[in-house]
Amino acid sequence: MYGWIFRHLPGPLWLRIVTSLVLVAAALVLMVQFLFPWMSEYTQFTDSTIGSASQ
Amino acid sequence: MVLQEKAGRTAAAPAGVVILRGAVQVVGELLITAGIILLLFVAWQLWWTNVESDARQSEVIKEFAQDLGGAAPAAPAAPEGSAPSAGEDFGEPVVSAAPGHAGTIGIMYIPRFGANYTRPIVEGTTSDVLDTLGLGHYGTTAMPGAVGNFAVAGHRQTHGAVLDNIHTLVPGDKIYVQTKDGYYVYVFRNNQIVMPSRTDVLEPVPTLPGTVPTERYLTMTSCNPRFGAEERIIAYSLLDSWRPASAGPPAEIADQVAAAIGKG
To answer: What sections of the protein cross the membrane (chain A) (predicted)?
Structure first.
């Protein structure tokens, strides 16, 4: 899958490497901004309050 | 593997095999990706949330200091009651009304947690408060200095780990709460480990529902064990004394207050 994506990126090799790095960075930003906060809503590892009413 | 692949190619594997091989490869890559994402999630939760929260909490303290800088000289000391409070001559502690949700109540200084321990106390115990802004005040409980129970929650790990060292408190440790009105000095009394459903620790007299309070409590709740949330660790403290803002900070934390407020 990743090989297929890499082969289908436009431009010479160095540009494709740069583009894939940018894509990885973009995926990281999306995860930190949206995916991980959403996931942490469903994990109870850090719940520090008493009772369920305040949750 | 290589030999097999070559053999497959020369023999012109049937289309079904090629598709299956591709599908297996994609599934494998997706599983590896999922594993990496989960590892990143752990790293994010244990490390990055602390970085983010620490930065946000410094901002909150800065904003609070700015508000204080504007209000403190103008506001005269609140009228003092006649009943002497323990050890000090400043009368009854001033009790403010709670701010709106996510409003800053003040700053907590706990020298036991380090000379730099200054964390904002913010109204509310929802995740938007606790995850970024600092210690969250249970809206149903009293305000600092009031007869009854001033209860706050804070993360043990992640999101700033504001109460990470709650188990290191020793009876007699001072806990300072600074609000716009002044400084409330609480003295730590004991820890208790309870199940998360024990809402009675938030009662005006902790764990004694229906009792009319005569003391001024500070109750802090956090998760227990340190990297889990099966239980809650509770820290009880009692108000020892208070000083109005006009009297200046207690000598023990004067440097910390100067450092925190100086940032603004």
So the answer is: 13-36
Does residue A15 belong to any structural domain of this protein?
Answer: yes
CA–CA dist A6, A9 (Å, integer): 5
Q: Residues B53-105: pLDDT tens digits?
A: 999 999 999 999 888 875 444 333 334 443 444 445 788 888 989 999 999 99
Query: What domain range includes position A9?
Result: 2-39
In a domain, A55, yes or no: no
**A49 has a chain B CB within 8 A of its CB:** yes
Mark yes or no for CB contact A53/B199 under 8 Å.
yes
Q: Does A50 touch chain B (CB under 8 A)?
A: yes
pLDDT exceeds cutoff 60 at B264: no
Nearest-CA distance A40 → chain B (Å): 8
User: Tokens at residue B183, please?
Assistant: 């400084």
Q: How many domains does chain A have?
A: 1
- Cα B90 from chain centre: 29
Chain A neighbors of B201, CB-CB under 8 A: 50
Question: Which residues on chain A are in Cβ contact (under 8 Å) with B23?
Answer: none
Q: What is the ipTM of this complex?
A: 0.84
E strands within B138-264? 148-153, 174-179, 182-194, 216-224, 231-244
